[in-house]
């Protein structure tokens, strides 16, 4: 079995961006917005007409589509530590 390294690297990049947003804004909301926006764009790109589709239904596409949700949930849990303390 061949590992789709492009999808794995894309998920790593998404996780890095989400951690950076959580740390920079000291909130989980930008992390969640980034994940939702990425998932929405991926859904749109996977429904384009044949020949223009950027995400196809192969193993790499499935890892990317379903990995976005998993990575976003993991980064939301991770970024809770960056929240500002309650007053």
**Major pleated sheet:** none
What's the alpha carbon Rg, rounded to whole Å?
A: 15 Å
Mean pLDDT: 89
Category by helix and strand content: mainly alpha
> Using DSSP, what is the number of strands?
0
Helix and strand pattern? HHH
Helix content: 55-70%
Distance between the termini: 52 Å
How many helices? The count is 3
Shape: elongated
**Weakly predicted, low-confidence segments:** none
Strand proportion: under 5%
Describe the structure.
The chain has helices at residues 5-25, 29-45, 59-79. The protein is an all-alpha fold and 87 residues long. The termini are far apart.
Q: What's the layout of helices and strands?
A:
Layout: H1 5-25, H2 29-45, H3 59-79
Helix pairs in contact: 1-2, 1-3, 2-3
Keywords:
3 helices; elongated; 87 residues; mainly alpha
Brief overview:
This protein has helices at residues 5-25, 29-45, 59-79. It is an all-alpha fold and 87 residues long.
């Amino acid at each position: 079995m061949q590992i789709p390294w492009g999808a794995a690297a894309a998920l790593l990049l998404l996780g890095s961006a989400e951690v950076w947003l959580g740390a920079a804004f000291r909130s989980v909301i930008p992390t969640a917005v980034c994940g939702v926006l990425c998932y929405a764009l991926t859904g749109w790109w996977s429904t384009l007409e044949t020949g223009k589709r950027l995400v196809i239904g192969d193993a790499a596409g499935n890892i990317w589509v379903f990995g976005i949700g998993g990575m976003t949930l993991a980064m939301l849990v991770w970024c809770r530590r960056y929240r500002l303390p309650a007053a």
